[in-house]
Amino acid sequence: VHFTGVSWVTVVEAMKRVLESLNLNIVEMVDENATLDGGDVLFTGREFFVGLSRRTNQRGAEILADTFKDYAVSTVPVHDSLHLKSFCSMAGPNLIAIGSSEAAQKALKTMQQMSDHRYDKLTVPDDAAANCIYLNIPSKGHVLLHRAPEEYPESAKVFEKLKDHMLIPIAATELEKVDGSLTCCSVLINKASEL
């Protein structure tokens, strides 16, 4: 598989080197039948939801569950979308941003049925806008990167209601043309700075 002229093997090896340089534990999936796309993995801080899509299968979800034994791992069928984070993501410590489409709402219902925890939800009119990045930065508090108002004006209005969040709108129209989104371009690492 190639992406903009670079093989996935090259990307994976480069990412592995970076994670190793940070002294992070790396688990490699060696089962050829397992597929697991990061866009299908939603970690809430309490548990994992794994979208079963064209890019992620049951075996990939099982390997994730074996790797993170301290967390519940529940699978969510994904239909009519590329992956789970095409229509949902975490917008806060207990807050799931979710799109308004029938597929998104059906997935949310499945997540609610699978979980012992009750999450708050933030429903946005546009599925793609539900893909946002939440950060809890010690000096800044709750920070939310979300799609720009010029791209999804109605969804941006919903995000603007989050008065306790520092909101950072990001234009990602070009990324969207190649099935990319905000979370696709992010690797969040919870590690103290050693500068």
TrEMBL record:
GO biological process: arginine metabolic process; citrulline metabolic process; positive regulation of nitric oxide biosynthetic process
UniProt-annotated catalytic positions: 83, 184
Coiled-coil portions: none
InterPro entries associated with the record: DDAH-like (IPR033199)
Annotated GO MF terms: amino acid binding; dimethylargininase activity
GO cellular component, one term: mitochondrion
Keywords: Hydrolase
This protein's record includes keyword Hydrolase: yes
Protein family according to the UniProt entry: Belongs to the DDAH family.
Protein name: Dimethylarginine dimethylaminohydrolase 1
The species this protein was found in: Serinus canaria (Island canary)
